[in-house]
Here is the input.
Amino acid sequence: VYTGLFSAANRLIEPIIVIPVIASTALFPVISSLYRESQQIMTNLFKKSLRILFLTSVFTVIIINIFAVKMMLYVFGSEYSNSITSLRILSLSLIPFFFKFFLERFILVLNKPRVIISSYIGSIFITIIAGFLLMKFIGYIGAIVALVLSEFFIICYNFASIKKIKNA
Here is the structure.
């Protein structure tokens, strides 16, 4: 039952993930060429891209939360009304997810792929430990919260690593 409730919410979130993937894929060659040509222009593009991705992600989360009930009932029916809370919490993972692919591409431009691997290893530990602890108190919602926390960890780790690399 809980897997189905999570899965229903996840299926509504999955198509939205295409947006940051496409944006990051489109910007990767531009950032790569700017890295060699102009650090200042690359930095400006980096900041503007982050701003746009942030605003888009927050807007998307707000829309999902406003229309969560209608979306869930329309797509899955009243049997999945318990998934509405899952959808609202899981939608929060879109904020870091919108940044994640872009930051990873930027880290690749900086030629530091180990940073990406380290962030995912840390994320795995957070998901397991937080999931285990939170599921004791709030059930399957704890697993969703752990997933959201792990996504935020990835972007925080990547931001800190980029800042450290750029200051080095």
